[in-house]
Task: inverse folding
């Protein structure tokens, strides 16, 4: 079900065990060749496909397109909620649904800059409602739910999410090729240099001059369709778990 197409009595009539999905994304620079709405388009498409399989068993909120993109602010066109504002924004959206009785909230994220504030938001909501034992609060990135695209399709080179990279460029080629610029002339940008296994604070211009991270040159629409299918299957699997959750605190 799509929240934006429903009236309030229909929402009021739903089982409060229905998982509510909030897709989270961003509007930020994606190199010289992809549109700034890339993350929102991609998580929106994965949400659209997942909803079409799950129908009345889940309730999807519209894509929360404003994300935390402070690290991209050196590139024009980027819009960003600062990290603390973004945590509060997510907390309020989760609290909106809790106020209306829903108990299972799943944030399906499509932008890496949202990871830390997104996990912080569900942490804070959980602590606030610490005496309840009926809440399922989950944050998940669609690309980190288990599938291994490079094993499913040996022509896929990349093994983890980059930025405006082989994966993202391929998926936008599959969805909206008219919005993709000259990705074949984009020089590869090595994703290394993050001080692993420690986490080093970074801005995008520390790591990339053109804005992308990875190798967009090897993208293709066919790879994009494969990636969208794998990521959608993982999200559907996660939501099936949320639907089937038996209410036990941990399992
Ligand atoms: Zn992206």
Result:
């Amino acid at each position: 079900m799509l929240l934006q197409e429903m009236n309030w009595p229909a929402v009021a009539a739903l089982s409060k065990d229905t998982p509510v999905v909030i897709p989270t994304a961003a509007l930020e620079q994606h190199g010289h060749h992809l549109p700034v709405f890339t993350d929102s388009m991609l998580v929106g498409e994965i949400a659209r496909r997942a909803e079409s399989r799950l129908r009345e068993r889940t309730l999807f909120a519209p894509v929360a397109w404003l994300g935390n993109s402070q690290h991209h602010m050196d590139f024009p066109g980027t819009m960003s909620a600062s990290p603390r504002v973004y945590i509060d924004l997510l907390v309020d959206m989760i609290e909106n649904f809790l106020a209306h009785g829903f108990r299972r909230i799943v944030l399906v994220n499509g932008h890496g800059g949202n990871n830390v504030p997104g996990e912080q938001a569900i942490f804070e909501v959980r602590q606030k409602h610490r005496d309840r034992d009926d809440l399922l609060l989950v944050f998940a990135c669609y690309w980190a739910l288990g599938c291994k695209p490079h094993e499913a399709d040996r022509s896929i080179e990349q093994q983890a999410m980059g930025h405006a990279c082989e994966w993202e460029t391929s998926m936008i080629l599959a969805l909206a090729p008219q919005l993709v610029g000259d990705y074949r002339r984009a020089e590869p940008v090595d994703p290394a240099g993050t001080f692993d296994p420690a986490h080093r604070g970074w801005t995008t211009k520390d790591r990339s001059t053109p804005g992308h991270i990875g190798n967009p040159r090897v993208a293709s629409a066919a790879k994009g369709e494969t990636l969208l299918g794998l990521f959608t299957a993982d999200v559907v699997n996660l939501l099936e778990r949320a639907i089937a959750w038996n209410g036990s605190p941990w399992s």
